[in-house]
């Protein structure tokens, strides 16, 4: 099947090299995906594939799949990195920067607006009820996210001797760590990758932390904005396997350490990150807003997404070698099941944050909707929010 020709005459040039796509086209198309990308990474990947491979023919199918594989090897939000990669592939670092920003900003505007509505203006009981209802459904959403990663990860480990047994061990230890260790969970993920690489006969070389990270670590003790920046950097640079992996770290900082949010409000933040378009890591913007208003929300977003731009714009030309690197593949074979365990363990943390008995039936209904009927996340959260509104209208407790 021949790809449809673009309407913009500047979109393509012929020849063996990557097509020349105008920056105007990248801006409009990546903004469109940022606005319509409800449903998290699966929706984002589908929209990017439809645009870049199926409809416009800008990137061939094999290269697109290689981009998915390479971005899954990196820490941080993989679908955001794929959006940056596709735009970088078409127009270099300027295109990657523009495409990434246009992909992120629509969801950021929506989630900051909802944060203002929910956290600042003494919202009506119906608004609080909607948030509490959606928050009750977040734990099953995490279970679904973890379960969806199991088949590919399980198949990856089948080719190595003892791989399946180690897979179970990595997942179990990481699930326990998510429930017990909080912000130290990331060390367990990294250790699982290193151990698996060693079991497969590879030696990983660990480099020193980059100076910006060290600087932010120092700033963490300098005021609220410094603490917000440090939390956001950890979220953006250490979230192997998706946003749910970093839930224990975010909760430890936002609820337990700094008290920017209550346990209930943290559930609301996670629900907003799921229900708004764009990357799920936008949850950190709600935390930043709770800590320091709009400035804190914007700072959290900028810091959390900066590692993704650095990884892709600085290393995109090496993605072929990264994907073919046996040591990197071995590391992912260990870190992958550990990330799945962390997501499932995080679901327990999220469920334990529920504070009202009427939320438990909503959690059960969401679990049936997602795990038995295999329906979508957005519909589950909207339905749970509607039940929360009904709870508020009949006078059930909200605080």
Automatic annotation (TrEMBL):
- Protein's recorded name: Chromate efflux transporter
Q: Which UniProt keywords apply?
A: Cell membrane, Membrane, Transmembrane, Transmembrane helix
In the UniProt record, the gene name given for this protein reads chrA
Keyword Lipid biosynthesis carried by entry: no
**Topology in the lipid bilayer:** Multi-pass membrane protein
Q: Which InterPro entries match?
A: Chr_Tranpt_l_chain (IPR014047), CHR_Transporter (IPR052518), Chromate_transpt (IPR003370)
TM ranges are 97-119, 126-147, 167-192, 213-233, 286-315, 327-351, 357-373, 380-398
Per the record, the major location class is membrane
The record's subcellular location field reads: Cell membrane
Q: Which family is this sequence assigned to?
A: Belongs to the chromate ion transporter (CHR) (TC 2.A.51) family.
Record bears the keyword Cell membrane: yes
Recorded hits in Pfam families, A to Z, give:
Chromate_transp
Q: Where is this region: Disordered?
A: 1-20
């Amino acid at each position: 099947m021949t790809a449809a020709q673009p309407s913009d005459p500047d979109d393509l040039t012929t020849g063996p090299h990557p097509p020349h796509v105008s920056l105007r086209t990248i801006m409009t198309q990546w903004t469109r995906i940022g606005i319509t990308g409800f449903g998290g990474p699966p929706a984002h990947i589908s929209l990017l594939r439809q645009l870049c491979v199926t409809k416009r023919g800008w990137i061939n199918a094999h290269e697109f799949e290689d981009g998915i594989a390479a971005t899954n090897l990196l820490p941080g939000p993989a679908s955001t990195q794929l959006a940056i990669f596709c735009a970088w592939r078409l127009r270099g670092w300027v295109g990657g920067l523009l495409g990434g920003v246009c992909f992120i900003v629509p969801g950021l505007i929506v989630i900051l607006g909802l944060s203002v509505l929910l956290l600042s203006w003494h919202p009506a009981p119906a608004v609080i009820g909607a948030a509490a209802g959606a928050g009750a459904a977040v734990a099953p959403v995490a279970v679904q996210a973890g379960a969806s990663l199991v088949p590919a990860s399980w198949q990856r480990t089948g080719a190595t001797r003892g791989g399946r047994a180690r897979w179970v061990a990595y997942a179990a230890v990481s699930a326990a760590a998510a429930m017990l260790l909080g912000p130290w969970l990331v060390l367990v993920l990294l250790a699982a990758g290193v151990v698996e690489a060693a079991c497969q006969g590879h030696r990983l070389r660990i480099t020193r932390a980059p100076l910006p990270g060290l600087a932010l670590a120092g700033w963490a003790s300098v005021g609220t904005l410094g603490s917000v920046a440090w939390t956001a950097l950890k979220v953006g640079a250490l979230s192997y396997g998706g946003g749910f992996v970093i839930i224990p770290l975010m909760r430890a900082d936002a609820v337990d350490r700094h008290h920017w949010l209550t346990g209930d409000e943290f559930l609301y933040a996670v629900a907003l990150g799921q229900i708004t378009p764009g990357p799920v890591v936008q949850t950190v913007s709600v935390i930043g807003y709770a800590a320091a208003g709009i400035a804190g929300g914007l700072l959290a977003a900028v810091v959390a997404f900066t590692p993704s731009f650095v990884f892709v714009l600085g290393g995109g030309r090496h993605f072929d070698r990264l994907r073919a690197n046996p040591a990197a593949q071995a590391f992912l074979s260990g870190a992958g099941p550990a990330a799945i365990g962390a997501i499932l363990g995080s679901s327990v943390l999220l469920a334990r944050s529920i504070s009202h008995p009427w939320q438990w039936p909503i959690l059960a209904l969401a679990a049936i909707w997602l795990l038995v009927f295999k329906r979508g996340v957005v519909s589950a959260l909207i339905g749970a929010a509607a039940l929360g509104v009904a709870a508020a209208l009949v006078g059930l407790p909200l605080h």
